[in-house]
Amino acid sequence: MKLEPKVVPYVYGNMPIPGGGYVTGFSFHKKVKNLLYARTDIGGIYRYDFAKDCWRSLVDHVTHEDLSETFPLAIALDDEHPERLYAVCGVGGEEPRPNGWFCVSENYGETFARYPLPCSVHGNNPGRGTGTRLVVDPNDSDVLYFASQTAGLLRTRDRGKTWEILDVCAYSYPNFETNLSFVFVAPNSSTIVVAASGSANRLSGETRGHSLYISYNGGNSFTPLWQPKVFPGSYTKLMGYVGHRYDFDGRYLYITLNHTGNNSWILWEGYSCDSGDAVAGKVIRFEYRNGDLQNPVDITPDFPDYGLCKHQIAWCGFGGISTCASKPGLLLLSTICRHAGDMVFQSPDYGETWEIKLLNLEIGNLHFRTSYMKPEYNGGGSLLHWLSDIKYDPFNENTAVFNTGTGVFMSQNLQSPNWFWTDHCCGIEETVHLNVYAPTGGKTMVLDIVGDLGGFAFTEEGVPCENSFADEKKDRYITSINADYADEHPDIMVATPRGNWTGRTKGGLVISRDGGQTLLRPELPWGLSTELDQSLETICRPNNNSGWAALAPDGKSVVWAVADGASLPAGKIVYSHDLGQHYALSVIYDRKGRSIKNITLKPFSDRLDPEIFYGFGPDSRLFVSRDGGASFREKARPKSFPVQTLSNIDAANKVEIRGVAGECGVFYLAMNKDGLWKLSYSPEQDEFTAARVTPAGNPVYCVGLGILPDAPDYIRSPKALYICGNLNGRFGFFRSYDGGESWSKLNDEAHNFGEIKSIDGDKTVPGRYFIATGTRGLIYGKEE
Q1: 169-173 long-range contacts, CB within 8 A, separation 24+
Q2: Is the pLDDT of residue 5 over 80?
Q3: Which backbone phi and psi does 752 adopt, to 5 degrees?
Q4: How far apart are CA 63 and CA 627, in angstroms?
Q5: N or C: which end of the chain has fewer CB within 10 A?
Q6: β-pair type (192-196, 81-89)
Q7: Alpha-carbon dihedral sign for residues 364, 367, 373, 375
Q8: H-helix or E-strand containing 531?
Q9: What is the mean pLDDT of residues 30-54?
């Protein structure tokens, strides 16, 4: 293998969605105007460019081989050193760094130094919606405190080089609380306040221990801080409050607290909306005097009757709370209401009275610039959820920003009688892109398969879709596992989305005849077996995997492996020779001719012969159908071929498989640590052969195919190979124009884009390729 020493000059940009993921928190600098950062759960940290009204990613340098920095649990700014940005990040016990990192930037996030933390950190774990977890001591810029989820309260006196653990416990709650949600350090005193999950000092199997603790001696010891009594309602899975967020205006400390609701999918760690539910919230105001917190007052707003039943008040938790430096007394408060719709309250008088600044689509003039967010594509409703943080601009009370599970919203005229909120997601690309397909032609440039949002059929480089992956009523599907297109008729496509959370769409196999611009869902293959019907019933419920589909090159036959959760059972594979109008069950035979159902198979079509389909299974088991999917027969695995699970889907899928258009039986497989392989099936010999493309010791994570320069036609010409991997110790994206004999690197160290899920080359424009990431959206690259 020859690797060219020089990097090919490339430019990169997004195929923008934008937004799409959970932005978990914001930090404005208190003394420098127009300095705002956002952290996300899987997409790293962004800095906002006020002049361009756009966010800029600060993690494009992160590689697929170490994703820690794309999972920030906390960020912090230094009031006296505006150039400093701190972050705590990690992937929760995974290699190459089982514990977390403390990241230090001296240049506004352009570059970071990293120091190891003595505890595990995961930025996408339950509780990520709370904070502030990381603070610079306002009395000493070298000292920082971190409220961890695994080791309690940590302190560094040398900006992260060394750490010590401070015991958060008290005489009446003697057990050391390790799972904390925030830390507050008072100025000009030794007062520290922390919030704990209450797990270590639980009062019973259904009641948390105390959450709020205060120290008056710099963390050497703690005592319980007053908090509301346990809410005994039927809406809680666990009783007992947990502190969620706080803010401090020099006069008062404001704290939001919540219970764990019945819809939470986790118990003791489930104290935020990001684990499913937060209910029965409270907002408490403490008076701050000479380092002491006194006179707690419940300033929880009353819920006026805007169509809300009174019992729904208990269903609402509270997210962020923000004081206003430019106008003392002004407060903003967000709710996290799973059932009643989210709200934003504003108080002009330190929380004595409140007015509603946002309620669903009824109050607050919610405007949408991003297409898929519009109510007409969401059943006429608002898609806002998880408003766990909200902040005023400290220099302008008219500007405020709040987070959601689908991006960022901002008002720039909040005190005007005609105030409104608008999504401000330009530059944020935080969705998980599971697969990408560049068709051989047709209306669509690239088909993007996405977690949560289903997919997007892009027709122009760098231009968002108006809407995509929706039914005839414009209601969107969500997470799709894969798609396929017909090489000879590329506007014919199939995909396997989930039905959306509202139930307005149902999962299954969907078909498009216009390159994914519109989708039709044929009737499901009911009645073929009891086991299959059970899976189809599950698919019809919201947010359940539909499976994996393969489409013949002539666009007529389709094989669909119906999902059973995250697996593809061989006994639930169906085929159709009329594009989903009629189905029958496929029969799977092992090498001894026995019918089998107890394995998983992922189907792929031959890219030349419409009668041939393939099944890839566990332990690199290989199956072939020569009758359009009616039956699959196992073939011998080539002796040299690596043994891996080839039938995984969704997050478990670690092998990318690409069939070669215009050739019978030829596939390229990116097999992670085992590198890139070429697998060939000969119909004449009825057997597989395999050849290693990259030398041993060179991992390859993804592979795609594209058109060669000067090639008259993609299908009938040799193919360009695009991979993401590590060749000769150099991580990056590589291209080969000679079948893998030689490779050219296509990126520098500033353009790695985090987690890489899938890659494909353009079939019509030489040199252009597409990168589906789990961190930074869908990326295109092209030569300068």
Answers
A1: 169/200, 169/201, 169/222, 170/210, 170/213, 170/222, 170/223, 170/224, 171/223, 172/210, 172/224, 173/200, 173/201, 173/209, 173/210, 173/224
A2: yes
A3: -110, -30
A4: 43
A5: C
A6: unpaired
A7: positive
A8: helix 530-539
A9: 97
* Distance in angstroms (rounded) separating the CA atoms of residues 283 and 351: 9
In 355-425, where does DSSP find H-type helix? none
Rounded Cα distance between 628 and 611, Å, is: 4
Task: Give the pLDDT confidence score for residue 328 in this predicted structure.
Answer: 96
Nearest to 193 by CA among 183, 204, 178, 181: 183
pLDDT number for residue 304? 60
The pLDDT of residue 96 is: 61
**pTM of this prediction?**
0.96
pLDDT in tens, 549-600: 999 999 999 999 999 999 999 999 999 999 999 999 999 999 999 999 999 9
Query: For 453-503, where are the alpha helices, taking DSSP H only?
Result: none
Question: In the structure encoding, which two tokens stand for residue 566, read together?
Answer: 């995250």
pLDDT for 95 equals 63
DSSP 637: P
- Which H/E stretch holds residue 456? strand 454-458
Run of H or E residues at 223: strand 223-224
Supply 688's token pair.
């597989």
DSSP secondary structure letter of residue 416: S
Distance CA 636, CA 622 (A): 7
Q: For strand 631-635 and strand 587-589, is the pairing parallel, antiparallel, or unpaired?
A: parallel
CB 713 within 8 A of CB 704: no
The pLDDT tens digits of the residues spanning 476-509 come to 999 999 999 999 999 999 999 999 988 999 999 9
Residue 294 and residue 214: Cα distance in Å, rounded? Answer: 12
Q: At CA 115, angle to CA 109 and CA 117, rounded to 5?
A: 115
Residue for token pair 């809407």: 467
Over range 219-232, report the average pLDDT: 92
Query: How much is the mean pLDDT over the chain?
Result: 94
Distant-in-sequence, close-in-space partners of 177: CB < 8 Å, separation ≥ 6: 152, 168, 169, 196, 197, 198, 199, 200, 201, 209, 213
HSE-CB of 182 using CA atoms within 13 angstroms: 24
Q: Tokens 């389709």, residue? A: 558
Long-range CB contacts for residues 79-83, cutoff 8 Å, separation at least 24: 79/29, 79/30, 79/31, 79/136, 79/138, 80/31, 80/141, 81/141, 82/29, 82/31, 82/32, 82/35, 82/108, 83/107, 83/108
Q: Kindly provide the b/e burial profile for residues 15-30, where b requires at least 16 CB atoms within 10 angstroms of the residue's own CB.
A: bbbbbbbbbbbbbbbe
Judge whether residue 88 has pLDDT over 70: yes
Q: What is the pLDDT of residue 568?
A: 96
Q: Three-state DSSP class for 47?
A: strand
Query: Where does the pLDDT of residue 251 fall: very low under 50, low under 70, confident under 90, or very high at 90 and above?
Result: very high
pLDDT digits over 103-148, tens only? 999 999 999 999 999 999 999 999 999 989 999 999 999 999 999 9
What is the number of other CB atoms lying within 10 angstroms of the CB of residue 52? 10
Residue 305 has pLDDT above 60, yes or no: no
When pLDDT is averaged across residues 270-279 and rounded to a whole number, the result is: 82
What distance in Å separates the CA atoms of residue 724 and residue 754, rounded to the nearest whole number?
11
Token reading at 373: 């967010």
Q: 307 pLDDT exceeds 50?
A: no
How is residue 59 annotated by DSSP? -
Q: What are phi and psi of 707, to 5 degrees?
A: -80, 145
Instruction: Examine residue 600 and say whether the peptide bond preceding it is cis (omega within 30 degrees of 0).
Output: no
Residues 72-101 have a mean pLDDT of: 91
β pairing state of 153-156 and 252-261: unpaired
**Max CA pair span of the chain:** 88
CB 611, CB 550: distance < 8 Å:
no
